[in-house]
Write a structure and sequence with these properties.
Elements: H1 12-29, E1 34-39, E2 44-49, H2 56-71, H3 78-84, H4 86-91, E3 104-109, E4 112-120, H5 124-143
Antiparallel strand pairs: 1-2, 1-4, 3-4
Helix pairs in contact: 1-5
Length: 144
């Protein structure tokens, strides 16, 4: 009987590529963000704060990455889930570190979920655009 499994872990270099690319997208959009990368266990793996980004957005970005890593779907999906499941809408937002608005996406390469990206500082839509840019850069890196 197997008593352990092999895991793939996101490298620090990959985390930095995600952060840098998300920040570059934020500069294009004219916003200031905090960007966090969490590993599959929800542990902070990389973080970058742009000068003048909102201080409260530090923890929000980290918690968006944690939420996306722990559930494996974008934080923006919670709105539709709550529409279908009223009891979840009542109970889930009370959970510590759960973020239920856009800006957090899972990091998935091939069939493997490696963690989550969380961005905070713009609108939920802008945050998600920045997170997606970071993920796209990682996909390009993985393909090379």
């Amino acid at each position: 009987m197997d008593v352990s499994i092999t895991q793939q872990i996101l490298t620090w270099e990959a985390g930095q590529v995600i952060c840098r690319t998300a920040v570059e997208k934020a500069e294009e959009l004219g916003i200031r963000i905090n960007v966090a990368v969490a590993d599959k266990g929800g542990n902070l793996a990389a973080f970058l704060r742009m000068p003048e980004a909102f201080l409260h957005s530090i923890d929000i970005a980290i918690d968006k990455a944690y939420t996306a890593a722990s559930f494996g779907f974008p934080t923006s999906d919670w709105e539709a889930i709550f529409t279908e499941e009223k009891m979840l809408e009542i109970g889930m937002p009370q959970r510590d570190r759960l973020v239920v608005f856009g800006g957090g996406i899972p990091i998935v390469i091939g069939d493997t979920t490696l963690g989550g990206i969380g961005v905070s500082g713009g609108s939920a839509e802008q945050d998600e655009i920045c997170a997606q840019a970071g993920h796209a850069a990682l996909e390009a890196l993985a393909a090379s």
